[in-house]
Write a structure and sequence with these properties.
Strand content: 15-25%
CATH architecture of the largest domain: Roll
Largest sheet: 10 strands, antiparallel
Strand order of the largest sheet: 1-3-4-5-2-7-10-9-8-6
Number of helices: 25
Helix content: 25-40%
Number of strands: 25
Distance between the termini: 36 Å
Structural class: alpha/beta
Amino acid sequence: MALNMDAIGKKIGPLTKNYDWKDVILYALGVGAGVDELDYTYEKNLKVIPSFSIAAIFDFLGQVGVASNVNLAGILHGEQELIFHNPIPTSGTLTTEGTVAHYYDKGPKGALVVGESETYHSNGKRLFTNISTVFARLDGGFGGPDAPPRVVEFPARDPDFSVDAAPSVNQPLIYRLSGDIFQLHVDPEFATMVGFERPIMHGLCTHGFACRALMASLTPGKPELVRRLACRFSRPLYPGDPIRTLIWKTAEGKAVWRTINSRTNETVIDCGVFEYGEIPRDEIRFDGRVAIVTGAGGGLGRVYALEFAKRGAKVLVNDLGGARDGSGAGSQTPAQKVVEEITAAGGIAVANYDNVATAEGGSRIVRAALDAFGTLDILVNNAGILRDKSLPKMEPETWQAVLDVHLNGAYNVTRPAFAVMKEKGYGRIIMTTSAAGLYGNFGQTNYSAAKMGLVGLMNTLKLEGAKYNIKVNTIAPIAASRLMADIIPAELLDTMKPEFVAPLVLYLASEACPVTGRIYNAGVGYYGRAAVMTSPGIVIGDGQKIPTIEEVAASWDKIQSLKGAKELGQLNDLMGEMLTAFAAGPQKAAPTATSGPATAQGAPTAQATGTAGGIASVAEVFAKMPQAFRAEKAAGVNVVFQFSISGEGGGEWSVEIKDGTCKVATGKHLSPACTLKIAAPDFLALMNGKLPAMEAYTSGKLKIDGDIMKSQLIGKLFKM
């Protein structure tokens, strides 16, 4: 086995877990709480032990293992860090999203697999951040980097608190009922096979004992004060061995700790850190984040840069320093003045004077941020110029100059920025459109076209960035700036402060941003969403004969009606809507598996291909596929189809078409172009010509995830 390098940065989740007071109490019993801690073991006035958060994310930890392809026979929990943002309620639904964040190579000792996640409650509050490190003893030596050192210094004095506990020999049997059912903690045969004398304690069970000891010593009766709990699991513990948690206070609200086996005096948990105190004010911060703001020498860009820095971000302030129409040699003064404002207020910023209108300029802007700060998290494409003329008077160079700054400029900076964000598995990108682009404005065809082009750029970039936690949104600001100085009356301009727009931009640029691919109007305290809507449409004719102009005219009211309109997320959604509408529309004959789009929605049927007697099993379909493959139809086709067949006789099969060959395999492929999901009886009905593919798709019996267009190749590529 080898670690799956492609898993790094890919999204895991959302994973949900419903829980109630019984789950909370079961966890407390599992980590040693009893009648002397009724706050945690009795539903009256019940409170939640913060380390219960681990029990809520066992599914996430399992998904990290699956995604990374770690050898399960060699895994141990290496390190654990929990950062608590709000108290955990006693019941509700928890939603967790995260990624495989890092692999570290420890050579012959093994590897470290790091998973990071955020968990929210159904009340909308963010509860905790989890950073789990798995020690994979059998997966080292892959040539990756070693882990950065993590040093926790302990005072050279006796601990301030020493708390003894005696986990029962049956402790793992109780603790596993909270979700961690790994056989290493209960199965003697498995434990012996992987090198232990007998089943060992869950490291996270001992972790729960330590959490109770820390709270009893530092936050008695107030679990809501726990802010951070981190540690390293250094040695296994056998059930029944007594433990002692040693605690040193190092500052107000801070302590270090370790847990030892008091029978052997060996340390079983080390490098412990515990932080506690009142819940910080619910403030969105950018500490540790790096932001680029283009066109930040004045107006909106200046305000964005100042606000980012005020909230902890390191900011690259970009501005060419040219005239409003982009003319002139440029000046360093505007960007430098903003940097001086930021540094005078205690912030961190650097200036950059490159031109976004060239690819070289865009690359240099991103490189400047990396050179100054080492990374990049946020990009606000704000740079712009105006050269207004009505279309008959607009020379090609006037048209092009505006597109070069607004649309091409966004591309020039976003392309290298996106590469950095993709590598790190995080990013926030803000495009700046305009009401002129969304709705039109006389004399601004160049500006309007460029601004609407940015919406198209966002729409596709949101798809390309989704699996890397890169969120891309667009703002249409109405605010005073030099671009609007002689367009808007002075008395109105005074009310349109850029500061009104900044809160929405910074929210979209924050870690808390819940959306991607959205457009928002903002100005003078008004905030609202804009969207492209698609009506249900109408089918004219049977899909075979081209409709006449007169038939279109006769259906005009229904064509243009927006009743029942909806927002679509991507091209594939529109294809699905069209296919569904076609199936519901007037047709001269029901579609068969050999005609039109019906064939495109599934493999060819036995009826269509002349297989006598039909196909009896799902496995038979995939056994025959290599022989049914039509290599002459596969020129230039490289695609992977995943078939997920549910029910008795079903399973997972992948079909890979590459370089004129067909490979059928059982199991899930890592990156299929599309996944076809259908129940086994319906699949056999489809294959035997009893269920038209179009009917299967429009009725919901056949679901297609991914690139629906690619699924249309199936009928072309196979003939049994």
